[in-house]
Amino acid sequence: MNASIQPLNMSQQEWELRVKLAHCYHLVDYFSWTETIFNHISARLPGDENHYLVNPFGLNYSEVTPENLLKVDLEGNKVEPSEYDANPAGFALHSAVHGARHDIRCLIHTHTTPISAVVQKKNGFSYDSFYGAQLYGRVAYHAFEGITLFQEEKQRMIQHLADKHILVLRNHGIAVGESSIEKAFFLLWTVQRAAEIQCQAGALGGEDFPLSEDVKQKCTDLTAMLITESGFATKFFDAMVRKMHESKK
Prior knowledge:
Layout: H1 12-30, E1 40-44, E2 52-54, E3 70-72, H2 88-100, E4 106-110, H3 113-120, H4 130-133, E5 139-142, H5 154-161, E6 166-169, E7 173-178, H6 181-204, H7 213-229, H8 232-247
Parallel strand pairs: 5-6
Antiparallel strand pairs: 1-2, 1-4, 2-3, 4-7, 6-7
Helix pairs in contact: 1-8, 2-5, 3-6, 6-8
């Protein structure tokens, strides 16, 4: 990404959010978690207007910049002029979550091959791996209703998500939401690693060694504490941004 210049009429807070969200798009591309021009990552803007930032539809994730991110309302309407439009499939999911869960300020939707494979299985995610155990008690499930274009599905998604931070869209993919871009990215990374290991373990055959409920809960609680109290997610995010930039030199 070329050096970006903050517009004079934009607050420092919004500009920093735009830069961070653009980094998030580039990281998802760097880790090969993209689905060509599809899928979406949104970040809620500060204030009471219920506006959020999302990618311009038709651009590769590598082409997203702080400047070209769209500012939209909960109905997906652009609140500032842009030559681009947003992906209509993202409105139902992102507007539903941002409208109902004010604790979620960043939402990431993906369907990588390992994640799509796991969510197609009736039992969904296993919590018996190191990464899977960190998801224990955090995963909700929503039945596949086709491409998420329609308003009537929004309430059902929210009911199924409840107070969780990972929404499995069965036979489709996932949406992960957290209180910051850094936390959402770390959660996505954890889900991706859990799915990769679950797929590999399943391919080996034989029985998995189960973890106890106490151990799984301990893993979830400890991860939450590290992310909240130590700034772990921010350190991880910043390190991955540096790694990505180093790889492109």
